[in-house]
Each structure stands twice: as structure tokens, then as C-alpha cells.
Write a structure and sequence with these properties.
mainly alpha; 0% strand; 4 helices
């Protein structure tokens, strides 16, 4: 099973030599890849995630009527909610 892999430039030359236009196809593929990379993605820093998590955990604490002792559970639940938004 000896397969030799041609370098990309050699492969393009052989396709062009056969009369096929592969350069147009590769240009379309490149344009598609650029669009995918430029799609809007929320990127938050660790500090921003922690700040949002803290705020959300406090809101959960308030909704429970300010009962103490569940801070860890509130934080974990808030973290899940914040990370689901990202």
C-alpha cells in the first residue's frame, strides 16, 4: 500500500493540465471558510464569566429568600446558566 502524496502545487498543476479548473473550486472553499471563522461568537474573559456567575448566583440566592447554606449549589447552577449562554 505505497501511496505517494503530491504536494498541493503539484496536484493543482496536474488538474489544470488535464483541462479542469480546480482553482475556482478552491476559491469558493476559501471564501466559505472565511465566513465560518468570522461568525459572531461570544468570547468572554475568565473575569467576565466569574462576574456574571457571581451576579447570577446572588440572584438565585435572592429568589430562595436569602436562606444561607446553599452558596456552592447556587454558584454551580449560576455557572451552568452563564456557560450555556456563551
Amino acid at each position: 500500500m505505497n501511496r505517494t502524496v503530491k504536494p498541493r502545487s503539484a496536484a493543482r498543476k496536474s488538474v489544470v493540465a488535464k483541462g479542469k479548473t480546480s482553482l475556482k473550486k478552491s476559491a469558493k472553499t476559501t471564501a466559505t471558510k472565511k465566513i465560518r471563522r468570522e461568525s459572531p461568537v461570544k468570547k468572554l474573559s475568565v473575569k467576565e464569566i466569574q462576574a456574571r456567575t457571581a451576579q447570577r448566583a446572588y440572584e438565585i440566592f435572592e429568589q430562595r429568600g436569602h436562606s444561607h447554606g446553599n452558596d456552592f449549589n447556587d454558584w454551580v447552577e449560576a455557572e451552568k446558566m452563564v456557560l450555556a449562554e456563551v
